[in-house]
Design goal:
250 residues, alpha/beta, Rossmann fold, four-stranded parallel beta sheet, 46% helix
Length: 250
């Protein structure tokens, strides 16, 4: 089954879950599409919104749900936890009962507390932190693997196939990035791979000269990065500019 069909079935299931409250001549069923329209990772949000809108269009062309058409309403959380809480409260006030989102785990977790309390069904297709679905909530779901699964997979691949001598594990101190980086570190150490540096950077950092100096001093030949692309792109460029020859994975 291709991704588009999977997304379409997901939307149909969400809508059917609450379709009893709509008549055959009902108004549109609104679905909140929550994620970053602005901010450093807006690119990921755009991909999420495009996929969601495509699924909505497919369902509507097929007749909608019980005679009602689906309507996607975009809410911008900028992948910021405080803004995500504000978005969640606005969704509640707007009377929307279904949410696709959020994207960043650090935004999804506090927002999902509100949705669970308010009886709003939420499905995230991007948040990988295990904590999100480990609280016994009945209305919070995801369609993506966990850091606790992805991290060991990456760690095993590094140990078994790349076989570096000395590894640094870097993260962006965010719930997603630090979570998956921790899982990678634990797996590497369990397989006897030396992790000489485990360090966090700040989202939005531009100058990584101090970190690169630490990598050089530690004799690192491989770096695993847990986080998003804006900081990683700068780190890769600055590492090359300073002549440090290390492999990266993230």
């Amino acid at each position: 089954m291709n991704k588009a069909k999977q997304i379409s079935k997901l939307f149909a299931a969400m809508a059917l879950a609450g379709a009893a409250s709509y008549s055959m001549a009902a108004d549109n069923i609104k679905i909140a599409l929550a994620g970053p329209v602005t901010g450093a990772v807006a690119q990921y949000g755009e991909m999420q919104f495009i996929g969601a809108k495509m699924a909505i269009e497919q369902i509507n062309k097929a007749g909608g749900v019980n005679g009602a058409q689906l309507e996607g309403v975009v809410y911008d959380d900028a992948c910021d936890p405080k803004q995500a809480v504000a978005v969640a409260n606005k969704i509640v006030n707007d009377g929307v009962k279904f949410v696709v989102g959020h994207l960043c785990s650090s935004s999804t977790q506090p927002a999902s507390d509100i949705y669970e309390d308010e009886g709003i069904l939420m499905i995230t297709a991007a948040s990988t932190s295990p904590d999100i679905t480990a609280r016994g909530y009945e209305l919070v779901f995801r369609t993506i693997g966990l850091d606790s699964l992805q991290g060991p997979t990456a760690g095993n691949f590094i140990a078994d196939h790349i076989k570096p001598k000395t590894v640094a594990v870097i993260h962006d101190k965010q719930q997603y990035g630090e979570g998956i980086a921790t899982a990678v570190k634990q797996t590497l150490e369990s397989k006897g791979v030396k992790v000489s540096l485990f360090e966090g950077i700040n989202a939005g950092d531009k100058d990584f000269s101090a970190l690169i100096a630490k990598l050089n001093q530690a004799g690192v030949d491989f770096v695993y990065y847990g986080g998003y692309h804006p900081e990683l792109g700068l780190l890769l460029r600055q590492t090359k500019e300073r002549g440090l020859n290390v492999k990266f994975m993230g």
